[in-house]
Design brief:
Length: about 725
Amino acid sequence: MAGYTTKENAIVQNKNNNIFRYIAAGIIFLLLVLIWPLSLFQTTDSDINNRLLKEDDSYTYYYLSSGEYITTVLKGDGSYIDNGAVRLRFQGQVPQDACMHYYMYDPEGNMVVDQHIDLFERPENDVYQIPFGIVMDKGAGYQFIIAPDNDFTVGVYCLGESTEPAVVMHSSDQISSTTPVAVSGILKLCIWICGLLCIGMLIGSAVFESKAKNSCLFDTKAFIPAILSLLSIIVYGQYLFDHNIESGEGLIKGAFFVVIITIMAFMCIFAGRFKLLIYGFLILAVGSIYILTFPAGSIPDEVNHFYRAFSLAFGNLQSVKFSDTSVGSVLPTAIQALSDPEAVFDFADTAQIDFNNTSLYAPVCYIPQIIGIRIALLFTGNVYSVFMTARWAGFIGAFILYMFALYIIPAGRELLFAVMMLPMTIQEMTGVTSDGMTNAIAFLFIALVLKKAVSDSDLSKKDLVLITILGTLVGMCKIVYIVLLILLLLIPVGNTSGEGNDHHSKKSDNSRFTYGIMFGIPVIMCLISNVFFGQNLVSNGENMEAGAQIKYVLTHIPATIMTVIRSTIEYGMQWIGEMTGDYLGQLNIRTLPVVTLVLVIVLIVSSKNIRLPKELRSVKAIWIYGLISVFGFLLILGSIYATWNTVGDFLIRGIQGRYFLTILPVFGMFIAALSSKGVNDDNDGQLSYFYDYHIGSYILLVINMLVIVDVYTYIIMNG
């Protein structure tokens, strides 16, 4: 009979499945042998000059002729430099006696390198070694110059669109370093651990699946986390050594990530149902690496945020207006030396420190950092140590709120986690910024409101107070996010069906009173906060005046609409990149183009796969999500247009994609509500596997791992 499976057919099918499992296990074992000990997987042998061998958008050739030269400044790290390497490209006929002149001056103007290198015979890949034989003082700048000696044209490999030659310096310390060997050993060991775990799951499913039908441990699909970890380590390991072989710190961070992804395999197999535990583990691990990777002050406005937090730590709620263009505080002079590990606070030596763009932020944005600064100062006066303590305190504070939000949100946990794991979100969370706490408070507010929206119980006084406080804090952090209060309309505080007229009237009055509290107090407190802290608002440039800009907008509405459209078209893709995982650091660290694409896909899949209760996918809910998304977008653009753009400018300049992170979960809920997938909808398709086996978590982890490699690549290139 068609479609009927006999017992004999089932036995044959099960036997074939088992054969497939054994074959797959054998292939994986062969792969492990090829990787180690047969060394198919090359890591420690990665060419030290591999950065010169990469022909991508980060580099270009600049052509020189006789009488021309190019130069760059090389930073010393205190080590003895044996030689440097540059890459050339020939154009046209080059004479056999062609020669290049390489010379370098120390900070005092003394020539310390003077080498004439013949171009023939040509070395492999046209990478030429220039003897240095000097100790380059740590932090000192050395002027390195390249010029043709003869009458010919040659191209020099340069950084990006610049005329600065890419130079790789080799030192005895690098050559004798055991870090690449040690990291390579850890990498291959973890590959074997994950590979054996794959084999164990495959063989276990073949032997025990029929005997343990109610157990998912020996389901064939249980090996998916292990195989994902195995493949991720192989791909990541090669990328790590190809791009970070020159950085011992980069390799060590890479080894840490490899261990993390190995632990992840075991967690997903043996504790896969405890998603919250896995989510917390990943945020904590990735965030810790970010804190230790980004140099002090390298995150947008981090220096000024630290100045503001430090001033607040000593009770200076309001910044000091020094002039019509200067706002800040009187702080220890040493605070300006964030990157100097030897700098120490001297409170008798103070100076006027300006921080115009962060002077308006309310203290709530910096509560963890303030606590961290005060605690650190009890034990040390070292500037860098106090700064790093502020980083850790801000991260821990935001992490706690993140976990509460993930715990209480009734739907969309995977989406919220995806937003939290975006490289830009992690960067802001781990820096001394206002955005870390702003996002954390907003995420918790969104989660709590959604929870109460689907709750069968009435809104208690405790809930009312907590929601009102969180709504107030969100608005005080940044006034544009007050738009999130619209979400409160999802909470059913006035259910009057089936009641008498008198009772109906009383309940309606109570509802209006409740909404009045939840909306009114945050709005009033937000206005008071902005008036108080905004007293010292100064112009950010010539013809940049908020009042005049607002007047222009109100009197030129059609032109303003076109400005919004024009700006979105012009900068939209850049905003998406800045919101997800590109333009990190001071907007100067670019990541692989695929990073943004993959993260956008993960966000879309996370949104489309949400199972929403009927209260969160109604027409009313769709309108609420949509209004928050649109108004939030416009308020963000409007605030920057009013304060950071010349009056009547035809483009809105200065928008950074990270500003949209706070409302991104609501936009995701909007997409989910339009998809109309309910909690009782069994038609999950293939998307359920995306989260049942933590595929989304693996993707987010690997993306962050690749991003850290790109950060170290930038550090290697720029010193």
